[in-house]
């Protein structure tokens, strides 16, 4: 770990000055980053004051005037080089992500792999930012559309994917010709510094103008400044629904654009026709991976009554085998929660479950003693619930898995859709009709609907996001790039007359 911290923390301490990047010496308060793994203080960074923020936005706006003129494939080539730099530093950066956020080593490295994947996607995209041509209704006219960059794209990210979510947004935004200003979570500032440190080496070699990629450290207040700032053309915000409500309303008040990626409350339906072994792996990984702190974490299992008892027994046995502890140890399945505040929320949810008539089926609670000194470790827990359990409507960002019994598929889909969030969903079945019904218009109302895989762990090739209180945004693959560009429709007259549209006759 020391080599990793040496690599990234020293420069973070004097707070930046990255080549080619307008992360300037900020003058705000210091925030400390403690690892939830062992409570060690791993870095201190200085937040941006309002004046620092203004200076960075100005620098970004100036850089946009240059960056937008660079051909998109040239921008793509710089992203290709960034992917190469990430490949070289994958283990180092992955380890830092694990240590600062608390996810397992493989998940930390997996997050960096996701960064590399989105870079590769963005490189290809840099030659495919194309629009349509349309047939004009007027003679000697041509009509087509093209896509231009928006300007400054603000990126606000959550603690649980401290590096990947930035890259999903930034790599696409950059090849599209935008410049970016990133406000990472105040709970994972060092991972953000590390990303820009790696990026700055690539920018320097390519003489990218300062201000193309920017970092502003700070709390939600900086995020609020971004939401209110007309200089930011698109605010892409990932985090809780509470944060998204605030950002969405502030951006709407200035008629700006925003892309919201908010909380989930994801369910797997396990039918009587499911392969139960496969369902078990999908459910357990989905529920306890990243200690239940993924937006796509499986929070509810809706199980057919014919297999309910059998499946819950399997689940309980699997939970007994889970190894909880230091996520840097490859034998560990479940690491810590991000901080003690998250532990309090987990404990409050356990109390609410019992008060509201749910039943806790596995060992549950905070862990203490050797190896758990940070106070952030909890036992993943299973709770039996009726579909009307009030606490189940909320996203508790911890490893609590509700199991609910159902009789008909229609009822299961109703329970699955009967929450305010709409991110990820899955059905486990070998029955084609059940699978197709789940995917049909009568089925899942989520942005992601899977068959025979769990709810968590999306690939970058698809558009990622969800409906209802998940915010409606889509980012990453497919045609999500369109959110980062403005569409312009152009009609060109190459004739000598001026025929008007809709057959309007107008003569002087
Ligand atoms: P959070 O909402 O507390 O914070 C997220 C980010 O928003 C942070 O950078 C924070 O400083 C900033 N912020 C907070 N209040 C703000 C405000 N009023 N205006 C502007 N910015 C503000 O979330 P968190 O605890 O860091 O992350 C967990 C949440 O994120 C969960 O709800 C999870 O489901 C969600 N999440 C969603 C996705 C997705 O793609 N849908 C991905 C990851 C996490």
Automatic annotation (TrEMBL):
Q: Which UniProt keywords apply?
A: NAD, Oxidoreductase
- Reported EC number(s) for this entry are 1.2.1.3
**Domain Aldehyde dehydrogenase spans what residues?**
28-489
Which segments of the protein form a coiled coil according to its record? none
Q: Which InterPro entries does the annotation name?
A: Ald_DH/histidinol_DH (IPR016161), Ald_DH_C (IPR016163), Ald_DH_CS_GLU (IPR029510), Ald_DH_N (IPR016162), Aldehyde_DH_dom (IPR015590), ALDH7A1-like (IPR044638)
Tell me the protein family, please.
Belongs to the aldehyde dehydrogenase family.
What does the subunit section of this Swiss-Prot or TrEMBL entry state?
A: Homotetramer.
* Protein's recorded name: aldehyde dehydrogenase (NAD(+))
Query: Which species does this protein come from?
Result: Arachidicoccus ginsenosidivorans
């Amino acid at each position: 770990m020391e080599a990793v911290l040496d690599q990234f923390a020293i420069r973070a301490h004097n707070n930046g000055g990255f080549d080619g990047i307008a992360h300037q010496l900020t003058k705000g308060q210091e925030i400390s980053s403690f690892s939830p793994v062992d409570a060690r203080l791993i870095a201190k960074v200085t937040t941006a004051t309002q004046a620092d923020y203004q200076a960075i936005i100005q620098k970004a706006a100036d850089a946009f005037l240059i960056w937008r003129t660079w051909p998109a494939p040239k921008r793509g080539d710089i992203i290709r080089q960034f992917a190469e730099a990430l490949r070289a530093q994958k283990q180092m950066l992955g380890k830092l992500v694990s240590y600062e956020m608390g996810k397992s080593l493989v998940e930390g490295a997996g997050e960096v792999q996701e960064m590399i994947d989105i870079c590769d996607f963005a490189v290809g995209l840099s030659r495919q930012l194309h629009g349509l041509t349309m047939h004009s209704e007027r003679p000697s006219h041509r009509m087509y559309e093209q896509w231009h960059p928006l300007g400054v794209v603000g990126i606000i990210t959550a603690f649980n994917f401290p590096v990947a979510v930035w890259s999903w947004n930034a790599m696409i935004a950059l090849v599209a010709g935008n410049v970016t200003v990133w406000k990472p979570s105040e709970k994972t500032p060092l991972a953000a510094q590390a990303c820009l440190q790696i990026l700055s080496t690539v920018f320097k070699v390519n003489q990218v103008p300062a201000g193309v990629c920017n970092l502003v450290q700070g709390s939600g207040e900086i995020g609020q400044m971004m939401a209110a700032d007309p200089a930011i053309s698109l605010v892409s915000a990932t985090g809780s629904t509470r944060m998204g409500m605030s950002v969405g309303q502030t951006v709407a008040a200035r008629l700006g654009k925003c892309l919201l990626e908010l909380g989930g409350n994801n369910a797997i339906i396990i039918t009587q026709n499911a392969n139960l072994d496969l369902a078990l792996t999908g459910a357990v990984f989905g529920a306890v991976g990243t200690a239940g702190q993924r937006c796509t974490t499986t929070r509810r299992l809706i199980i057919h009554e014919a297999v309910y008892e059998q499946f819950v027994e399997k689940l309980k046995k699997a939970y007994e085998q889970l190894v909880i502890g230091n996520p840097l140890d490859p034998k560990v399945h479940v690491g810590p929660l991000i901080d003690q505040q998250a532990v309090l929320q987990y404990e409050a949810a356990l109390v609410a479950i019992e008060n509201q008539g749910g039943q806790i089926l596995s060992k549950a609670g905070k862990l203490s003693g050797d190896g758990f000194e940070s106070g952030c470790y909890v036992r993943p827990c299973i709770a039996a619930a009726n579909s009307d359990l009030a606490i189940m409507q909320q996203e508790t960002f911890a490893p609590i898995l509700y199991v609910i019994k159902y009789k008909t598929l229609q009822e299961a889909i109703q329970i699955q859709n009967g929450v305010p969030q709409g991110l990820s969903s899955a059905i486990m079945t070998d029955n084609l009709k059940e699978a197709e019904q789940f995917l049909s218009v009568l089925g899942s109302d989520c942005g992601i609907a899977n068959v025979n895989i769990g709810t968590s762990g999306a690939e970058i090739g698809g558009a990622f996001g969800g409906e209802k209180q998940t915010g409606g945004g889509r980012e990453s693959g497919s045609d999500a790039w369109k959110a980062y560009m403005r569409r312009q429709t152009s009609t060109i007259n190459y004739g000598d007359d001026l025929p008007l549209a809709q057959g309007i006759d107008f003569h002087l």
